[in-house]
């Protein structure tokens, strides 16, 4: 398999109620930060569709390569070798949850964001080794 790349849905990361609940977001919040690990943009579209985000054409200007984020660090460290979709709150405050989307669109919490004022926000795994189960 080719090396994974990370893509984001930008401002088009709309989520359903179960995903919002898994992130402990207020019920009126319907946007989140959606990151996709895949080998190409076309592969990312397929992975998104399999995991509950079926309506994202590759030509959407918000659907783009994501750089310098937690997912890239996990790939570079060899901790993520399978395609995955991670969702986290749009603003990414310390203590916020992170969920991995399973096939069929079921969210599963895998970790949280940590950091403090003036510190970088980092991902802390609850159970990342199983984040891409069912790939």
Features:
3 helices; single chain; alpha+beta; about 15% helix; about 25% strand; about 140 residues
Strand order of the largest sheet: 3-1-2-4-5-6-7
- What's the gyration radius in Å? 14 Å
Q: Span between N and C termini?
A: 13 Å
Order of helices and strands: EHEHEHEEEE
Q: Find the structural class using helix and strand composition.
A: alpha+beta
Give structural notes.
- With 135 residues, the protein is an alpha+beta fold.
- It has one domain (5-130).
- Helices cover 17% and strands 27% of the residues.
- It has three helices and seven strands, in the order E-H-E-H-E-H-E-E-E-E.
- It has helices at 17-22, 41-50, 70-76, and strands at residues 5-8, 32-38, 64-65, 84-89, 97-101, 107-114, 122-125.
- It has a seven-stranded antiparallel sheet with strand order 3-1-2-4-5-6-7, sandwiched between helices.
- A hairpin with a 7-residue loop joins strand 4 and strand 5.
- It starts with a strand and ends in a 10-residue tail after the last strand.
What secondary-structure arrangement, pairings included, does this model have?
Layout: E1 5-8, H1 17-22, E2 32-38, H2 41-50, E3 64-65, H3 70-76, E4 84-89, E5 97-101, E6 107-114, E7 122-125
Antiparallel strand pairs: 1-2, 1-3, 2-4, 4-5, 5-6, 6-7
Short description:
The protein has 135 residues and is an alpha+beta fold. The protein has helices at residues 17-22, 41-50, 70-76, and strands at residues 5-8, 32-38, 64-65, 84-89, 97-101, 107-114, 122-125.
């Amino acid at each position: 398999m080719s090396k994974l790349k990370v893509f984001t849905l930008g401002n088009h990361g709309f989520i359903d109620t179960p995903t919002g609940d898994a992130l402990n977001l207020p019920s009126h919040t319907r946007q989140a930060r959606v990151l996709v690990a895949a080998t190409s943009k076309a592969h990312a579209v397929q992975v998104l569709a399999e995991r509950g985000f079926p309506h994202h054409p590759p030509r959407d200007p918000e659907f783009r390569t994501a750089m310098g984020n937690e997912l890239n660090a996990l790939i570079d460290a060899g901790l993520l070798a399978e395609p995955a979709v991670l969702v986290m709150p749009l603003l990414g405050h310390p203590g916020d949850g992170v969920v991995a989307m399973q096939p069929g669109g079921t969210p599963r919490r895998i970790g949280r964001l940590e950091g403090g004022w003036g510190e970088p926000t980092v991902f802390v795994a609850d159970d990342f080794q199983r984040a891409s189960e069912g790939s």
